[in-house]
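Progress note, sequence design subtask.
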């Protein structure tokens, strides 16, 4: 029976989350937060979707007729969970008693949608619903979007009303498992851009500031004041619309990727690689790392990877020699001149 439930465990991509958020009208971080709290990925290592079997639902769907003989999977109150792959043992025991009731009594996939919601999310039967949940995370995401629309919970996601959302999504006992707090925390995490291993650039939005915002503004062809205000947000939204991205005015992984390929910064006649220049972050006194080492190599300095006073003085001299703005900051124009000198 295991093979019946094996599907394609390919995880959702950034674009999938963006399309879902656009369809609902909420932020990408809100959709990611729900998936994170509900499953942290829709599949087990063996290729089966993650499930949780609810014995109180099986009790309700079967009129309690298996309570005495199979109280571990049929009982008026929730419980008896084993977690992980062991949940399939409970499901299979229930399937042997009443297949339709069993499939409706489990929650499925990345968003842990209950089988009994199959009609609500557009399926003719619970069998069709389960086949979709097994097929891939894309189908699981589609069903989640359909559920949000059918249950009118999109407003709570838009407002980031996590208590209201958890009450509608997880039921009246949501506080027992702190679903509202977990989702609020996950939303905050993804609003900051998630793990840096997933997105090496920080998530930028209204109120952000500093070198990364100046980098963004240069890619957008704006004055580089380092302040993410209304003008920068409007330019970000316009860019996102032009490149078929979710136009939320926040610069996450996909917007950064598109900017680094399509940004308006030019080579300034340097002959350098536009992509290489765009991908270089702005550097200033105190910066460290491989990019600083490259800068020092280009300037003929010992490449210790530390942007100290000696490196700052060399940058300023280089900028004077090339008739660039002398500020000691290695922005895109300075990078273009450096990378173009061979």
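Output:
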């Amino acid at each position: 029976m295991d093979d019946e439930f094996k599907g394609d465990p390919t995880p959702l991509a950034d674009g999938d989350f963006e399309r879902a958020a656009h369809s609902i009208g909420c932020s990408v971080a809100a959709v990611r937060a729900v998936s994170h709290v509900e499953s942290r990925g829709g599949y087990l290592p063996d290729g089966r979707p993650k499930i949780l079997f609810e014995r109180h639902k099986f009790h309700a769907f079967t009129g309690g007729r298996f309570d005495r003989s199979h109280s571990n999977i049929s009982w008026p109150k929730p419980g008896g969970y084993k977690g992980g792959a062991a949940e399939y043992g409970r499901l299979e025991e229930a399937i042997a008693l009443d297949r339709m009731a069993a499939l409706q009594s489990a929650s499925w996939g990345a968003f842990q949608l209950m089988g009994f919601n199959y009609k609500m999310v557009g399926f003719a039967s619970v069998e069709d619903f389960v086949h979709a949940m097994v097929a891939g995370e894309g189908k699981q995401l589609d069903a989640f979007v359909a559920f949000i629309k059918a249950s009118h919970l999109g407003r709570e996601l838009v407002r980031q009303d996590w208590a209201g959302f958890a009450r509608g999504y997880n039921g009246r006992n949501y506080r027992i498992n702190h679903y509202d707090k977990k989702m609020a925390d996950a939303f905050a995490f993804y609003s900051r851009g998630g793990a840096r291993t997933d997105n090496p650039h920080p998530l930028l939005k209204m109120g952000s500031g500093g070198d990364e915002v100046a980098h963004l503004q240069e890619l957008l062809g704006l004055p580089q004041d380092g302040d993410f205000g209304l003008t920068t947000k409007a330019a970000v939204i316009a860019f996102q619309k032009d490149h078929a991205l979710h136009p939320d005015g926040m610069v996450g992984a996909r917007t950064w990727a598109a900017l680094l390929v399509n940004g308006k910064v030019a080579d300034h006649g340097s002959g350098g690689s536009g992509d290489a220049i765009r991908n270089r972050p702005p550097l200033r006194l105190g910066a460290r790392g491989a990019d600083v080492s490259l800068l020092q190599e280009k300037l003929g300095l010992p490449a210790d990877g530390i942007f100290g006073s000696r490196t700052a003085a060399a940058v300023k001299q280089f900028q004077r020699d090339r008739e660039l703005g002398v500020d000691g900051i290695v922005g895109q124009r300075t990078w273009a001149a450096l990378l173009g000198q061979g």
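The longest strand covers residues 51-53. Work on this subtask will continue into the next period as scheduled.
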